[in-house]
Amino acid sequence: MAPHRGAEPGDAERPGVGAAPAPGPPPIPTVTASADRQPVPATPDPQRFAYLGRPRAVWAIGAAHGDAGRLAALHDHIAPRFRAGERMIYLGNFLGRGAHVRETVEEMLAFRRGLLAQPGLLAEDVVYLRGQQEEMWQKLMQLQFAPNPAEVLGWMLDQGVGATLEAYGGSPREAMVAAREGAVQVTRWTNRLRKAVNDAEHNRLLAALRRAALSDPVPPAEGAAAAAEAAAEAPADTGAEAGAGVRTIAAGEGGVARPDHADRDLAGDQGLGLLFVSGGLDPSRPLAAQTDSFWWDARGFDSIDAPYEAFGRIVRGFDPKNRGVVVEAVIATLDGGCGRGGSLVAGCFAPDGTVLDLVEV
């Protein structure tokens, strides 16, 4: 499978797996009941996209890459601030690279259980996106169909999938031996990995991953009012109040152009919504026609400088170039380099795109 665009600097060209599509995740519940949610369009496919309705605010966590400790610290920051009517999105790449992949998944599941125990919160208020690491893991489970399994596996190992292998009882060496012995041995090996994921009860989460999450467009007056209300209710943190190790990222730091003002002028005044992706987007193609662009088209995402379709704020959780946190007029990147020697980042966004909170640990 050739890259959608030219490979990014530092990224090897992806060899093809040639696997048949895996069964899709279960459908999301229809969002029509509560006052903060409105009926959403029938397309794109709700089995691939999560619909957020009209949330009071959306919390998003960038690529954790197997760092359970940093994720737990961010959860401790978010928990007392999360309110009914808000949404929680993990922007993918929670697998891979780090030494605590299983613990990271367990932390995500435990936090979800804690949130859903609060009055007024619904199961669909917590969304998990598929990133590069989760996409590679799915393809790894189909490695026996690849015409060149050893080459595919070698490329995946270079991208950090080995940490996930080891988390579920495998090893890169064992994997390469199976890949070189042929499809029968690869099938036996992938079946053992699949059983380990099932035994850990992580299979349901991995089957429920969405490609992107989107909110309904917000009328200008409603968007401005919602942003003002959310900003007024948001706690004014100092470094100490944010919790141990959690630091607020201020306007003007690095690529953070304006996280706390004027964003609603772009999204709200035009009646636009929010779009959350893992790592990429091809702005030349409609949302429903995006394929692997969500994971591999970082260059396309970087080129966005105006609203895309009905979305005035577009947020991703992973930058393959590892350039740090970026917040511009339309796009935002919540990647501090976690799993690559950097921090884990979370942001809270009003329904018109205003950044209400931006922290790292």
Account of the 3D structure:
The structure is a single chain. The protein has a seven-stranded mixed beta sheet with strand order 1-5-8-9-11-10-7. Helix 6 runs antiparallel to helix 7. It is 31% helix and 13% strand. The N terminus is likely disordered. The chain is globular, with a radius of gyration of 20 Å. By secondary structure, the protein is of the alpha/beta class. It has twelve helices and 13 strands.
Short description:
With 361 residues, the protein is of the alpha/beta class.
User: Span between N and C termini?
Assistant: 36 Å
Backbone structural class: alpha/beta
Q: Which regions are unreliable across 5 or more consecutive residues at pLDDT < 50?
A: 1-12, 18-42, 258-264
Mean pLDDT: 83
Tell me, what's the shape?
A: globular
The side-by-side strand order for the widest beta sheet comes to: 1-5-8-9-11-10-7
How many DSSP E strands? 13
How many helices?
Answer: 12
The residue fraction in helices comes out at 25-40%
Question: How much strand?
Answer: 5-15%
Q: What is the H-and-E element order?
A: EEHEHEHHHHHHEHEEHEHHEEEEE
Radius of gyration: 20 Å
